[in-house]
Amino acid sequence: METVKPLINNLPVLKLVTSKGALYKGDSLPLLEKIKSNSIDCVFADPPFNLGKNYAPGIEDLLPEDKYLEWTRRWLSECVRVLKPGGSLFIYHMPKWLFAIGSYLNAMDSIQFRHWIAIKMKNGFPISGRLHPAHYGLVYYTKLGRKHKFHIVRTASPVCRHCKQLVRDYGGYLKKYPKNRSRIPLIRLADFWDDISPNIHRKGRPNAVNELPSLIPERVIKMSTNRGDILLDPFAGGGISLSTAELHGRYWIGCELGSIEHAQERLRSQQFAVEGADLPSKLKKILPIENVFAGS
């Protein structure tokens, strides 16, 4: 996860290249400013939550609210600018900040709200004097000017973990749904996701790396992009969105200010990395900068 502290104008360093992607280390704002307008098909952003989390020495994750919102508006504006007409923008965040983000985006005349997706928190904890927080939000916007891409994503219907029977009858429409190999109906994805397994307690997960469950970026990519499209993740964290994009035949640009070792390891372990290679030609066209490859 990228910090909110540095707002410097030094370009990030290119650290890893694959046949479809480029991973940079550094502040994503200067990189965003260099990307050509109307060139990205999908932006997926999981920014820092400004909760004071200790990621690494020198990385600050706690700013006054006005400063945090000022920084948020800066990268949001750049993300909207680089999106193609019809492109999709997904922001994963806490409801508190998503209301401010939504208010800012709704005031723009170039982008349109599509959905608020609620993602259940399976490891939430009660807070005194407040309702028990039980979900994160994923807001979904599309840029105006061209019809946006939208593909139906299906998921297996939930079943009772004891009797293995369906928990819903779907109003008598079950026969119309396709089924998986286990004969479970495949229903259309809704705007409430309660089947996400959190990574927070996964064995071996580095504390200094933000890493979402792979199902989240996978659904985003399948829903809003085609093969050969370009995904941008300005807060790449552990690289799960990048490896998912490559796995599904999408190009990608990732940037991370904090530790990128976990993202590099992920991409290398999946044999995506091409050591010392040049930037993919498709990305060169939208990144008109001198990319000095820095390696590990």
* CATH homologous superfamily label of the largest domain: Vaccinia Virus protein VP39
> What amount of the residues lies in strands?
15-25%
- Net shape: globular
| Helix percentage | 10-25%
Q: What radius of gyration results from the CA coordinates?
A: 19 Å
For the record, the CATH architecture of the largest domain stands as: 3-Layer(aba) Sandwich
* Tally of discrete structural domains: 2
Number of helices: 7
Q: What would your notes on this structure say?
A:
The protein has 296 residues and is α/β, with parallel strands linked by helices. The chain folds into 2 domains: 235 residues, Rossmann fold, CATH 3.40.50; 35 residues, no CATH class. 23% of the residues lie in helices and 22% in strands. The chain has 7 helices and 11 strands. The strands form 2 sheets. It has a 9-stranded mixed β-sheet, sandwiched between helices. A two-stranded antiparallel ribbon has the order 7-8. A hairpin with a 3-residue loop joins strand 1 and strand 2. Helix 1 runs parallel beside helix 2 and helix 2 packs across helix 3. The protein is globular and about 60 Å long.
Quick summary:
By secondary structure, this protein is α/β, with parallel strands linked by helices. 23% of the residues lie in helices and 22% in strands. The protein folds into 2 domains: 13-151 and 189-284, Rossmann fold, CATH 3.40.50; 154-188, no CATH class.
